[in-house]
C-alpha cells in the first residue's frame, strides 16, 4: 500500500482553519474543487508557488504523491484517469516545472485522457516585471489542451477548477490547464464570496446517445452483412463500454479486433477474439465498424480498409468521424451507449444474421492459426542472444486475469503488441498515438496506487526506461510493487533500423547506441528487486521471483540487438 499522508485534521479543526476570521485561501478552494470532482490523489513535484494547494489537500483528505520529475507527475495523472475513469490531477510549479510537464499533457491530448494540470505563476502584482520562473504558460498550453486559463481572483479558484474539469469532458476527453498566480493562491477571501461548485452539479452527463435513425441504419447493415468485422478502440474502455461491446459481438457473431486501451475487452480464447487476421478482415469484409479509433497513422489514414466494404465509424468527437477517409455512416456518441443501442435495435428481428457467419469466422480463424504457426518457432526460440519474440511470449504466459500490462518502448513494445494479450478489460496501457517514451514508470505509479489489488507488469525498452526511470525510487518509497522487465539491446533500435535502411549499415549507429546498463543493479541500488537474464530458459523463473519479492522490480533481459519487429520494418517513415 502507498504511504499514508499525515492524518487530516478533524472536521472542527478544518472549520477553524477555513473560517478563522471568515476567510478561506486559494489553495484550500482548489482542494475543495478537486474533492468535489472525486480526485483523491495529486501527483506533484514541489515548488514555492504551489504549496498552499498541498495544505488544502491535507485538509480535504487528498493524498499528495511527490515524484522526481514533472513529466512523471503529468503522465501519472494521465494514467490515473485511464485506470479509474476519474480525472487525474498533477500540480507543478511555475516556469520549468510547467514546461517539464508539457510532454505529459500532450500525450494525454492525443490519447484522449481527462486530466488537469495546475501550474504555478508569479504574483499578479509582479506581472511582466520578470518574476521568478515567469513564463506565458497559458499561451504555451493552449494548443495541447481543451482549456487553458489563468485564475484571476482568489474567489474564483474553485470555480475555475470546476470549469477546467468541465472542458476535459467536452466531446472526446482530454487535458486542461490552469495557472494560478502565487498571490492569488496564497490570499484569503471571505468564504461567502467564493463560489464553490457542488459535487455533481456543475456539468452535464458525459454520455451521449447516437442519432436514432443512424442506429436503426447500422442495425439494418449488421443484420444483412455476411462478412462483418468490428475494431474496438480506446474509447470503448474510456466510456466503460466493454460489456456493451461484448454483448454486441457475441449476440451478433461478429469477429472483433481490439487496439489501444480496448485490448482485453474480450479475453484470449474467446471465439470472437481476433488479433492476427486484421489486415485480411479489412480487405475481405463487407461491413467494417470502427469504434473509438481515428483514421490516423495506425490505420493507414483509412487506406487499409477495403474500398468495396461498407464502413461505419463511431466516435465521441464529431471532428474525427470521416476524417481522412470517406465513410458510409458516421455516429457521434458514447461508444458503450451506441453499441447498446445498436444491439437493442437488432433484438426481436426474425434474423440478426448471426447464424450465417460461421463460415466467415472459421475463415478468419484459419488465417490466425496460419500466422501464429509461422511465428511460434520464434516465440519458443532458445537462441542466445534472446529473440525478443521469446521474451514477449514468456511475459504473455506470465500474465494473470489480474495483471495490468504496461508497454513503454519502441521496437521491443512493437513485438509485444503482436503477442501480449491482456485477459480483462482495462488491463492494457500504452502511450497512445503520440508514441511517447517514458510513460512506463508513471503509469505503473498511477495503476498500482489506484488498484493495489492488481498486479502490474511493465515492459520497457532500455531507451524508454532511461527517460523517467529515476522515479523507480518513488515506487520504492511508496511501497508500490510491480514486475518490471527491461528488454535491453543497448540501442534505440527502432530508429537504428530506419537509419541503416535509409543511409546504410555504416551509418546505422549514429546517435542511437546506448551503454550496456545493468538495470537489475539500478533496481537494487534504489531498494527494489533485480535480476539479470541472458538465457531464455531463465526468463520465466526470474519473472516469478520478481512477483514473489513483493518489491518494485526490474528483470534486465539482454535481447538480440540485430532482430527487429515486423512493425518496425514496415513503418513508412523508413521507406
From TrEMBL:
Q: Which cofactor does it need?
A: thiamine diphosphate; Mg(2+)
Every copy of the Thiamine pyrophosphate enzyme TPP-binding domain together lies at: 408-557
> By its UniProt entry, which Pfam families does this protein fall under?
TPP_enzyme_C, TPP_enzyme_M, TPP_enzyme_N
Family per UniProt?
Answer: Belongs to the TPP enzyme family.
Q: Cite the EC number.
A: 2.2.1.6
Annotated ranges, domain Thiamine pyrophosphate enzyme central? 215-341
Tree of life domain: Bacteria
Q: What is this protein called?
A: Acetolactate synthase-1/2/3 large subunit
Gene3D superfamilies recorded = 3.40.50.970, TPP-binding domain
Keywords, A to Z, come to:
Metal-binding, Thiamine pyrophosphate, Transferase
Span of domain Thiamine pyrophosphate enzyme N-terminal TPP-binding = 25-134
Q: Which GO terms describe its molecular function?
A: acetolactate synthase activity; flavin adenine dinucleotide binding; magnesium ion binding; thiamine pyrophosphate binding
GO CC, alphabetical: acetolactate synthase complex
Q: Name one GO biological process term.
A: L-valine biosynthetic process
Amino acid at each position: 500500500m502507498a504511504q499514508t499522508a499525515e492524518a487530516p485534521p478533524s472536521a472542527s479543526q478544518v472549520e477553524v482553519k477555513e473560517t478563522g476570521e471568515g476567510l478561506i485561501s486559494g489553495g484550500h478552494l482548489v482542494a475543495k474543487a478537486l474533492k468535489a470532482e472525486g480526485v483523491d490523489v495529486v501527483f506533484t513535484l514541489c515548488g514555492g508557488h504551489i504549496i498552499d494547494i498541498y495544505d488544502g489537500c491535507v485538509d480535504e483528505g487528498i493524498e499528495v504523491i511527490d515524484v522526481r520529475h514533472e513529466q512523471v507527475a503529468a503522465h501519472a495523472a494521465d494514467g490515473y484517469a485511464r485506470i479509474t475513469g476519474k480525472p487525474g490531477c498533477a500540480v507543478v510549479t511555475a516556469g520549468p516545472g510547467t514546461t517539464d510537464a508539457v510532454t505529459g499533457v500532450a500525450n494525454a491530448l492525443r490519447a484522449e485522457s481527462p486530466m488537469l494540470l495546475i501550474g504555478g505563476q508569479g504574483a499578479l502584482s509582479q506581472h511582466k516585471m520578470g518574476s521568478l520562473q515567469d513564463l506565458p504558460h497559458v499561451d504555451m498550453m493552449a494548443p495541447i489542451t481543451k482549456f487553458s486559463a489563468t485564475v484571476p481572483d482568489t474567489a474564483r479558484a474553485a470555480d475555475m477548477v470546476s470549469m477546467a474539469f468541465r472542458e476535459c469532458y467536452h466531446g472526446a476527453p482530454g487535458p486542461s490547464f490552469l495557472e494560478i498566480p502565487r498571490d492569488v493562491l496564497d490570499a484569503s477571501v471571505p468564504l461567502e464570496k467564493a463560489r464553490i461548485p457542488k459535487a455533481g452539479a456543475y456539468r452535464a452527463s458525459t454520455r451521449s446517445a447516437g442519432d436514432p435513425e443512424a442506429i436503426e441504419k447500422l442495425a439494418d447493415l449488421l443484420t444483412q452483412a455476411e462478412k462483418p468485422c468490428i475494431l474496438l478502440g480506446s474509447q470503448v474502455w474510456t466510456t466503460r463500454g466493454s460489456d456493451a461491446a461484448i454483448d454486441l459481438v457475441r449476440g451478433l457473431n461478429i469477429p472483433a479486433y481490439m487496439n489501444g486501451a480496448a485490448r482485453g475487452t474480450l479475453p484470449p480464447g474467446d471465439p470472437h477474439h481476433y488479433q492476427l487476421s486484421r489486415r485480411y478482415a479489412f480487405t475481405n469484409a463487407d461491413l467494417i465498424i470502427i469504434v473509438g479509433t481515428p483514421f490516423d497513422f495506425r490505420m493507414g489514414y483509412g487506406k487499409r480498409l477495403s474500398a468495396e466494404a461498407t464502413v461505419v465509424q463511431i466516435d465521441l468527437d464529431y471532428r474525427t468521424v470521416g476524417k481522412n477517409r470517406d465513410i458510409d455512416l458516421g455516429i457521434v456518441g458514447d461508444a458503450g451507449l451506441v453499441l447498446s443501442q445498436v444491439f437493442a435495435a437488432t433484438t426481436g428481428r426474425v434474423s440478426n444474421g448471426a447464424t450465417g457467419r460461421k463460415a466467415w469466422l472459421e475463415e478468419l480463424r484459419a488465417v490466425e492459426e496460419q500466422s501464429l504457426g509461422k511465428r511460434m518457432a520464434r516465440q519458443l526460440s532458445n537462441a542466445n542472444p534472446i529473440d525478443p519474440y521469446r521474451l514477449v511470449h514468456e511475459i504473455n504466459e506470465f500474465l494473470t486475469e489480474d495483471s495490468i500490462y504496461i508497454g513503454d518502448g519502441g521496437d521491443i513494445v512493437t513485438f509485444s503488441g503482436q503477442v501480449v494479450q491482456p485477459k480483462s478489460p482495462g488491463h492494457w496501457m500504452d502511450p497512445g498515438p503520440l508514441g511517447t517514451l517514458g510513460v512506463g514508470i508513471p503509469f505503473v505509479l498511477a495503476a498500482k496506487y489506484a488498484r493495489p489489488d492488481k498486479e502490474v507488469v511493465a515492459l520497457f525498452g532500455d531507451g524508454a526506461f532511461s527517460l523517467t526511470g529515476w522515479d523507480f525510487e518513488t515506487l520504492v518509497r511508496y511501497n508500490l510493487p510491480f514486475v518490471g522487465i527491461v528488454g535491453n539491446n543497448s540501442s534505440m533500435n527502432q530508429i537504428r533500423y530506419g537509419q541503416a535502411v535509409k543511409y546504410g549499415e555504416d551509418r546505422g549507429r549514429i546517435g542511437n547506441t546506448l551503454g550496456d546498463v545493468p538495470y537489475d543493479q539500478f533496481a537494487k541500488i534504489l531498494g527494489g528487486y533485480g535480476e539479470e537474464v541472458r538465457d531464455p530458459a531463465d526468463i520465466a523463473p526470474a519473472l516469478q521471483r520478481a512477483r514473489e519479492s513483493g518489491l518494485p522490480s526490474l528483470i534486465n533481459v539482454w535481447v538480440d540487438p540485430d532482430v527487429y519487429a515486423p512493425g518496425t520494418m514496415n513503418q513508412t517513415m523508413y521507406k
